[in-house]
Amino acid sequence: MTTTDLSTQEVQAPITQMESEEAQRYYSASQFQLIWWRFRKHRLARTGALILLTMALVGLFAEFVGPYSGITRVSEAVLVAPQAPQFCNDDGCSLRPFLPGITSERNTETLRMETKIDPSVRRDIYFFVEGEEYKLLGMFKMNTHLFGVEEGSIHLLGTDSLGRDIFSRTLLATRTSLSIGIIGVIIAFVLALVIGGVAGYFGGGLDYAIQRLTEIVRVIPVIPLYMGLAAAFPKEWSSTQVYFAMTLVLALVGWPTLARRIRGKLLSLRGEDYVIAASLAGAGPSRIIGRHLLPAFMSYIIVDLVISFPFMLLSETALSFVGLGLRPPTVSWGVLLQDAQTVRAIEQAPWLFIPALFVIVAVLSFTVLGDGLRDAADPYQVSG
Amino acid sequence: MSDTLLEIKDLKVYFPIRRKNLFSGVTQYVKAVDGVSFHIEKGETLGLVGESGSGKTTVGRSILRAIEPTAGKVTFNVDGETIDLSTLLDKELRVFRKNMQLIFQDPYSSLNPRMTVRDIIAEPIVAQKLAKGDEVDERVREAAALCKLNLEFLRRFPHAFSGGQRQRIGIARALVSRPQFIVCDESVSALDVSIQAEILNLLMDLQKEFGFTFLFIAHDLSVVAHISKRVAVMYLGQLVELAPTEDLFYTPKHPYTEALMSAIPEVDPNQEMNPVNLSGEIPSPINPPSGCRFHTRCPYVQDICKTDEPKWEEIEEKHFVTCHFANTLTLKGAKMPPSVDAA
Q1: From the DSSP assignment, how many helices (H) and strands (E) are in chain A?
Q2: A150 and A220 share a domain?
Q3: Which of A140, A245, B293, B340 has the most CB atoms at less than 10 Å from its CB?
Q4: CB-based contacts of B311-318 (< 8 A; 24+ apart in sequence)
């Protein structure tokens, strides 16, 4: 009997102990709070998230942020080099940024158009100026642009050989490329969740069959598969149709890896003591899946999704680059880079490669974001 | 005589092993449990001991049908009715689960880290809709209080707790549906000694108060002696001996039990230990030895042991043994009183 009394005291001791508010908060923190707290500490991943968020917003409002539409041609500004806004010139400085004047004339010897900068002319940049009409988010008719000039034209990242503004086109391409990635990942993911989920939860013969199917899809080399699928798009398809077909192609190639991971996670979770405990508590399959299995691998799902993004982005870019993916007039990063693959571009207009920087930054951002999420996703690895 | 709560007859659990080849089907079985029969009386604690791999956990889990038994019958006497667990359909079984619960070995993996303590404890009554609304909270609080958990802790998550506290949460979860029968699967072996004593005392107090029936699976003999009224010894998927605790510890009738008893550590460091050293490893449950399963390691082995399988016999009142020579061998029991006064 004495042992019982002793044990009671021992248990009561930590209970009456005062705990700091911080500890209290930690003890009653949910999984997502713990993930968020750990993610916040990951500076690199936060930066990545910020960059991607900016890209997504800018892409979403591309027509507003960019001064021109993707197909507007400014004939007097062909292959203009990027121009940075200035605050000072020989006449002094001002708070309003401006661009120097540009004159374009044909070189009589080489017969090329050449642009010259005229520093004496000052073209002020105004914000929220009226310009070409467009539909914001495809719905609202507007003609206000974030910035613009009154005389001549403004080309922050230069123009291409047809006089189209690279800056505006890159923003539009950002939207296309990111959205293709997102839709592709989502379709691949739904496929993977259903196929991997069925295999992992039910196991047995069904699992065996699904695994062999997955292997068959996985052993097909990716590039020929892409090419075959992409070549099957009829030429007369509109760019929208090609766009959706592309997302499907990416998804159909992308699901097996994800499905494998989901299956593996489910298999290992199914044997966890707490899942057995739930079934012994009389919980049915829907409760076990909904309350125990899904929350347990939700964090892995998010990480997996983020990590498979770069793959989708690069696939789209690569396909469009070799001319099998999206076709003009749709602009994507790959389409823009396809324009850049001429000797002339390398020699005379290296700024045509600027979209490649966007691809690199986006892929890197996704990668560091995925890293940060992965580190934060399992807050129970290190038990305090 | 008290009533029988649970009757287990010729329970068998075989796990198929598949060859890696696609075209050859099931070829062999791991006979984890191979013909085990015993009963548990209402309100008693039956200890089940045996070395690793002897099938103790499988027995516990197949009684609860967490693992489907291959053959055998488990009958449950509840509220005057006799229910054959093996014939229950999935749905009926889920409803019946409120009567029996399991306390796990590992207090870390057995609690879902993504649920609050309140939700974890409430699971058995919420999943079966045994209670609604405020009644759920009331019953959770009641169970938590019984397990000496601070009610303030209910909104916390498991990561806030130590092993002993987590095990209390696991016990509270097992109690909340007011079961008749609880399987404790090595429930204290993951805890350190002082916490073990706490949890054991808690279980015994709860039993005294509510009349729970326990099947207490363990490999620590002193723990089993402390809590059990009767003890069963398992070897290679079969029971070798079952007797009231004192009889089993002081007058074992099976050579394997003798070896186990001689291995109980002495409290006195000057006391010389003379453990019966068994040679070899526990044989494979895929191809168990012919005749008596223990004959490969038995120090008293005779020719008959290698060919004839001994019967499960009651040689004294309530004392069951599986040995050809149970009545002729004189075996040594435990030297010290097996109670854990030291704890």
Answers
A1: 15, 4
A2: no
A3: B293
A4: B312/B37, B312/B239, B315/B253, B316/B243, B316/B247, B318/B230, B318/B243, B318/B244, B318/B247
Mutation for A interface: B103, B108, B114, B185, most A CBs within 10 A: B114
Q: Which residues of A touch B156 (CB under 8 A)?
A: 27-28
- The pTM (predicted TM-score) of the whole model is 0.72
Summarize pLDDT for B135-149 with one digit per residue, the tens: 899 999 989 988 888
What is the side-by-side order of every strand in the sheet holding A92-106?
A86-89, A92-106, A113-136, A140-149
Q: Respond yes or no on whether the N-terminal peptide bond of residue A329 is cis (omega within 30° of 0).
A: yes
DSSP assignment of B243-286 equals EEHHHHHHS--SHHHHHHHHTSPPS-TTSPP---PPPSPPPPSS
Q: Return the beta strands (E) in chain B as ranges.
A: 4-18, 26-41, 45-49, 71-78, 81-84, 100-103, 181-185, 213-217, 230-235, 238-244, 312-316, 319-322
Beta strands across the sheet bearing B100-103: B100-103, B181-185, B213-217, B45-49, B230-235, B238-244, B319-322, B312-316
Whether A296 and chain B come into contact, CB under 8 Å, resolves to yes
CB burial string B276-295: b at 16+ within 10 A, e below: eebeeebbebeeeeebbbbb
Question: Do residues A144 and A291 both lie within one domain?
Answer: no
Classify A140 as helix, strand or coil.
strand
Regarding whether A257 and A193 lie in a shared domain, the answer is yes
Query: Is position A20 within any domain?
Result: no
Q: Which residues of A touch B128 (CB under 8 A)?
A: 281-282
Beta strands in chain A, from DSSP E residues, in sequence order = 86-89, 92-106, 113-136, 140-149
A176 and A249 together in one domain? yes
Rg (CA), chain A: 28
A28 to B159: CB separation less than 8 angstroms, yes or no: no
Check if the beta carbon of residue A111 is closer than 8 Å to that of residue A95. Answer: no
Q: Where does a domain end: A128, A154, A180?
A: A154
pLDDT in tens, A83-123: 878 787 777 778 888 887 777 777 777 766 677 777 777 78
- Domain enclosing residue A304, as ranges: 49-58+169-377
